[in-house]
Design goal:
Shape: rod-shaped
Number of helices: 0
Structural class: mainly beta
Oligomer: single chain
Largest sheet: 6 strands, mixed
Distance between the termini: 114 Å
Number of strands: 24
Helix content: under 10%
Length: 295
Amino acid sequence: EIRASAPATLRFVDSETVGNSISGLGIKNTAGNDVRVEVLDANGYLVNWDNATTITASVKTAAGVVTALTGRTETVVNGVATFDALRLTGAAASGYVLSFTASNAGEPVNAQVLDGAAFALMPGSATQLIVSQAAAGARSGLPFTTMPELQIRDAEGNLITSGPDAALTVSVSVELLPPATGSIPGLSTTNVNLAAAAGEATFAKLDAQSANALMLTGPVGNYRLVYAVTNSRGNVLTTTQVVALAPGNPVGVRQVGTSAAAFQLGKTFSPAPSFELIDAEGNRVAADSVSKVKL
């Protein structure tokens, strides 16, 4: 039997170096499998009797902020270390490089280093729904003058631009602000759900002058908009904002107070009749200083 000599060098099994991977998930090789490193003797033969060498991964080049590298150390089995728990969590970017360092005191392989190829770290699973642009300019029965924009991000704050979590559907609902009670404004039903594209849901992409526009219709006041998505793991992610609903356009008038039971010709009305402009929901349109009311 020909037996390999002392462990001396490291090599990636089948020359499959580190490949593009997902933040927070398993680091994979260029074939999409677990990274495997083998121990060779000085002649390039697999040291299949080696069950003592430990190999530890580290970040040699960080293309972005690194939060954690876990599952870093494996002990070889029959000369091969399989990194089935290796995970890198950090900012999505291209140009990360991992190094693998051997430890086996007294053997030539001790402190030998194997560098992987540069790879891209891609965003992980969706864990955050962020309001990147808050809705504003809400008037009853009219589209928001500023439409909301939402972003789907992973735990590290990376915008998820690809994969199933990049196209999640964002839903919108409206709630009263505690301790308020009463009626909740109606929310336009044709645009309550919007599919994100490359991790962004931009409600302004829809025609603001059509029935597709996002709007509230109801009593004036402050309300909470609730945005929600369900990620690919079945977890519901939410975020909120407060929006002030102002009156819509004036459509009618309403008498304020009481009028005299009878009027005398040539005399000033007493008390003088008073009217206010109202929108379609009965909200007083206090900001209108142009419209005129004729008796």
